[in-house]
Design goal:
single chain
Length: 76
Amino acid sequence: MQAITLIQGHGYKYISEKIGILLEQKNIKNPSGFLIEAIEKDWKSSSLEQKRLEKKKNENNRKEEAKKLLIEKEKK
């Protein structure tokens, strides 16, 4: 019952992200307690955060390349 309430309150994607954090851990004695705390305190996954940072870096690199190409094109 609490699982349904959490999903309704936070959304499936948010809960799935927190379950991912739980699955990254080893030797958790109280998985449900861990999960509830992760949800309540909005814990972030280090691997998910790393992926977001990498994606942002790639986007910035593409923008910089596009700017360089545009400048080169304008020079010609």
